[in-house]
Design a protein that fits this description.
Layout lengths: L16 E4 L18 E7 L15 E7 L9 E2 L8 E2 L12 E12 L2 E7 L6 E7 L12 H11 L1
Antiparallel strand pairs: 1-2, 1-8, 2-7, 3-6, 3-8, 4-5, 6-7
Bound molecules: S-adenosylmethionine.
S-adenosylmethionine binds next to strand 6.
Length: about 160
């Protein structure tokens, strides 16, 4: 709006823990159409945050919010491995984003104190974790639209 002063707030986050993943390099992580993420590993919380895991065992799936700490810079338009056409960064899950924040839904297998054994990792070993939340999706499958990804899948199936 004309005359409006926009202040850009900065936010500082500290990791609550780190991902212990079998993936040491990005090329080891499945990518592209039909890629399945079934790797198991551990979300290892720092000891001071362990009380925050109280009652987490009853959830089957968790949302993990984390940092693409090994991504360099960002691009607003890019061609993802799942398509041969460019898309805006906010219409993709690219690691190269203005705020390099990743989000992965994992299955919780068990808890050992501050360590959560999970399945479904797509992060590198040592990735910093910013937050963990229970996964409670309320979007019915019939209302979910998968945009360009569904189109890319349909083209591949042709
Ligand atoms: C396409 S992104 C999707 C990540 C997450 N599921 C999301 O939607 O935000 C997954 C890719 O990020 C890259 N990656 C994983 N961990 C990373 C890290 N710590 N730093 C930079 N890139 C990473 C790997 O190339 C991996 O294949």
């Amino acid at each position: 709006m004309a005359g409006e002063v926009r202040t850009l707030a900065m936010f500082t986050f500290q990791p609550i823990g780190y991902v212990r993943s079998p993936y040491k390099e990005t090329r080891e992580i499945p990518k592209g159409l039909g890629a399945k993420h079934e790797a198991e590993g551990v979300l290892e919380l720092l000891p001071e945050f362990e009380p925050g895991l109280t009652d987490i065992e009853v959830f089957s799936h968790l949302i993990v919010i984390w940092v693409f700490d090994r991504a360099q810079g960002f691009e607003l338009l890019g061609t993802p491995p799942s398509d041969d056409r460019p898309h805006g960064v906010f219409a993709t899950r690219s690691p190269r984003r203005p705020n390099p924040i990743g989000l992965t839904v994992v299955e919780l297998l068990r808890r050992d104190g501050p360590r959560l054994r999970v399945r479904g990792l797509d992060m590198l070993d040592g990735t910093p974790i910013l937050d963990i939340k229970p996964y409670l999706s309320s979007v019915p499958l019939e209302t979910l639209r998968r945009g360009w990804l569904a189109e890319a899948e349909a083209r591949k199936g042709r």
